[in-house]
Every structure is written in structure tokens, then in C-alpha cells.
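Reopening this one. Same input as before:
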Amino acid sequence: MRNTALTIDQSALAHNLSTIKNILNPKSPAKVMAMVKANAYGHGVSYALAGLKQADAFGVACMSEALEVKKTCQTIGINKPIVLIEGAFGADEWLTAINQGFGAVIHNEYQLNDALEHTPDPDSFTNIVWLKYNTGMNRLGFNRQNTIAAAKLLHDKGYKLILTSHFACADEDGSPITAQQISRFNDLLDELRHTVSPDALGSLCNSAGIFKHSDQHHDWVRAGIALYGSSPFSHIDAHTHNLKPAMIFSTHIMAVQHVETNESVSYGALWRAPKPSRIGIVSCGYGDGYPRVVHRAFVGVMVDDTVIRAPIVGRVAMDIMMVDLTDTNADVGTKIILWGQDGAPSIDEVATCAGTIGYELMCRTTARPIRQVLSEPLVDNPLSE
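Same output, byte for byte:
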């Protein structure tokens, strides 16, 4: 077998969710929406949901994701609200959201009109509208005046309101944009509670906001990357925040080449051996989701139950990569940890070597690696998804 695998640690997911809950205000803790969009950040919805079952709701980007999450929840016996964070794409999707009991963000006049054309079911989560206020990200949401007008219309129709917005720079220290967004959000939330509904709720914090702005947790936080054990900050590692990686990317050495001094390896002859070297040919490449372009990247080589770091040499190909084994006794069949296990690089380290972020690497993992969990599979054939 090729033995390239993504192992999902459900206990790590549960641990990370617990870590987030433990830093919420104990006097009035916010509820936690676990973001499981993009196939649970590449981990696989079928694998991730059991580890996140203590979340108060699940957030997805679109209707197809919502339907998949609901189906998986029913399969494994979880009953949690599901929220469309980009809202419904058209009147038909709004009707589907009503029929399925999904919550939805409203961020434009078309979505607002769709909501106003229907009387909400007071017993459905669709009755709770996540009204998006553009505080400075300038992607989605109403301006201040239109947010107030929309809130009044929705409240009069019978909807319950959650004012929501999204940070642009929450991961940066002392950002004036973040300070401005916080001020704008809190000012408008206070006004809505005084002029529209005293029961209006607020949701502002993403993963970075949860850790950096504990006084802004409000009624709901939206946890994403931190749930999966990656740091939302470029300058702080995940371990500092007591987060554990939920994805272990591993493979094996499929062959070993012996190259002499100054001989090159792989496409473009970008690397040449500085001395006689043993090169491990590893059965993983960008066709599996490992980035093609990395600089000074390492892998973890399992030798006698110890993880030893070894450098990647030459250009990563679609199906294989090359690792310098000269200073190890590793051979064909030796396990290689690409990221996610103690001693091996973290996904954030690999992302830095690739000039990107851990979010992207998680989402770029392909269907080719075997996906498995550290416990029994949740459904008969999750790979069929």
C-alpha cells in the first residue's frame, strides 16, 4: 500500500474546543459556533463532528455544506443548530433553510427581502437572524444606517436578532482597525438594544478574537482554525494557547537513492548533494495536498520510535518528494510525518516554508490520502463523500 494518510484526532478536536470554552467569561460564557466549512477545514466532516459535539452550533459557508453536516449529525446522533454564514443564495435556498431549520446570516438587501416575505417559525433556528454589520472588513454586510433599518424590519416581522461582524486584523497587536471595529460594533449593538430589541445578541470574535479580545466575546464566538490545532497568530505557536493538532499527515519511504557529491535531485536540478548522500523517496506530493513550493522545509522521520527531523531536498512533485536521510538509518518502509505529530513540523511551520498559512494547507489536502481516525469510523464509508 502507498500508506499516505491523514489521521484525524477527535480527542484533539474535543480538547481544543474545551480550551476555547475555558477562556470564555465564566460569569456569562458565550456560546461557541464551531466552524466546519470547507469539509471541516479539510479534516472531513464525517470525522470531525464527533470531536466537536460539545459545540453549541455548527457554521458552514453554503447550503450543500449545511445539508452534509445535518446528514452526518443525524448519522452519529448529534442535534445542533447549523448556520449558513454566507446566508442563502436566493429565495429557493431561503425556503430550504426554513424547511431544514438552518440559521442564516443576512448581509444584503436581497437576503433581507427573502426573509421578510416569510413569517418565521418561532420554534426554528431560522427564526434567529444573524444580521451582518460591515464594521471595516468591507466584504459583506450592511452599513450602520442600513443595519438599523434592517434590524427594525426583521424584528417587526418576528425574527430574533444576532448582530454579527468579522475582524479584519484581530491577529495583529494594537491594530487601529480592530479598535475601530470594536467601537463601531459595540456602539451599534447598544443602540439596537435600546431602540429595536433589548434581547438583541452579539457575535464578533473569530479564533484570533477569542484569544486576544476576551472582553469582546459577547453572546456567541465563532471558532475556526483554533479548533483544528493551528494558531490564528503568525507570531504565536499553537502550543502556547494549549491547542493540539487534529490532523497528522503521514506517509512512508518508498525507495532510497544514493547520490554522489554535486549530483542533482528532482525537476530543475535545484538541489545538488554537498557530499555523498542517501535520499529517501517519499510517497507524497502536491497531488496529496503537500505544497509544491517549500523553502528549508523538514519532515519527521520515525526512527526507533523517535522523530528525527530531515530536510526536504529538490522540488516536490505531484506524487513524491525527496528527503535527505544521510544522517539517519531510515530505510524503505520508514514512516514519515509531514506535519502534526510531536517532534515533526507543525502545519504552521510547513505553511511558513510555503509562504502561506495553515488554513490553506488544511483545505488543500486532497481526496487521495487515506483518511482515518484514532477511534472507530463514524460512518460505514466516509470516503464516499
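So the earlier flakiness isn't reproducible anymore. For the record, Residues 310 and 327 are 8 Å apart (CA to CA).
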